[in-house]
Amino acid sequence: MTAVWLPLAATVLAAALTWWCCIRPMARNRTCHATPAPGPKEELRAARQELQRLRDETTPPTDPTDRPETLNR
């Protein structure tokens, strides 16, 4: 009978510690050793800035004939 109670007690203790240290703080709108994730507005703003930066970096040539040479063989 003791062989059943010891693993059961260890499992209950592990579940209680997990609840007390991680689940309970997160339920109270706090984090468990993690940084808060950025919201959708911040992610969208960052993506738009990145897109604008990429568009500014790669400007198309102003002269339409300014293309690489093609060799007719």
- Helix proportion range: 55-70%
- Helix count? 2
The best one-word shape is elongated
The N- to C-terminal Cα distance equals: 89 Å
Q: Which segments are poorly predicted (pLDDT under 50) over 5 or more consecutive residues?
A: none
Total strands: 0
The SSE string, one letter per element, is: HH
Largest sheet, strands/sense/barrel: none
Derived structural class:
mainly alpha
Strand content: under 5%
The averaged pLDDT comes out at: 78
The Rg value, from CA coordinates, equals: 29 Å
Write out key terms for the chains shown.
73 residues, 60% helix, single chain, mainly alpha
Topology overview:
Blueprint: H1 2-27, H2 40-57
Written overview of the protein:
The protein has 73 residues and is mainly alpha-helical. Helix content is 60%, strand content 0%. The chain has helices spanning 2-27, 40-57. It is elongated and about 90 Å long.
